[in-house]
Write a structure and sequence with these properties.
- This protein is of the alpha/beta class and 258 residues long.
- Among the domains are: 95 residues; 63 residues.
- The protein starts with 21 loop residues before the first strand and ends in a 7-residue tail after the last helix.
- About 4% of the residues have low confidence.
Amino acid sequence: MGIPAGVRTAGDPQSPGPATPEQPGGTAAGSSGPPVAPGKPQGFLSQFWDAVSVRTVCLIIGVLLLQIGFILSYVGAFHSPTPHRIPLAVVAPAPESGPIVTKLNLIPSAPLHATAAPSQAAARRLIRDDTVSAALVINPAAKTDTLLIASAAGSSEASAAEQVITAVEASQHRSVTVTDIVPVQPGDYRGLTGFYLVVGWSVGGYLVAALLGITSGARPATTRRALNRLIAFGSYAIVSGLAGAIVVGPVLGALTGP
């Protein structure tokens, strides 16, 4: 009887023969070949760089530096503010105006930058035009002078001017009354609404630019793509500006008017 096709005999050199059990270490029993070394575990750094790319680490470091700069900027500016060259108009009789301006400008560390104004009406116009932050009106017939301020232009600067002038007047055995000719609006506590509004606009613009760079690449490939990106930025800027104005105006009533 013939051997069926596809069946190999024991003498056939191409026959695989009986299965040989493997020994521990990856080699077959009776095999003379070298053992197969098991895979070596990766070190911590190798695993870390495999999970987090160098580019990602650089971006994280950039965000960290931006955060530290933000904290340093704001805390450094507001934790211990010192007045420096606050614009001040001085209204006084002609013989006394020059010496008073000189004395105010010679105060150590220069907290004031005083200039003479011809009249109280002129000083009020300078304050409303935001040319000066305050005006000191000298009354030679009494021991009480008047300080005109505009808290709506910045409550911190108005407070600083008031503190400096109060100390100067006390050193001359005089007193001062404060008149706020441009006060903040009732819903704008300490005049901070505009500050936080601009911060919100800035943060939103930064985030939009970052997201667009992440999703579409930091550099547009063609001029058309660059123009489309500018159109997207412009559209966002218009909507963002109107939305911020509506929130602080009609919605909250913090800032009203033009």
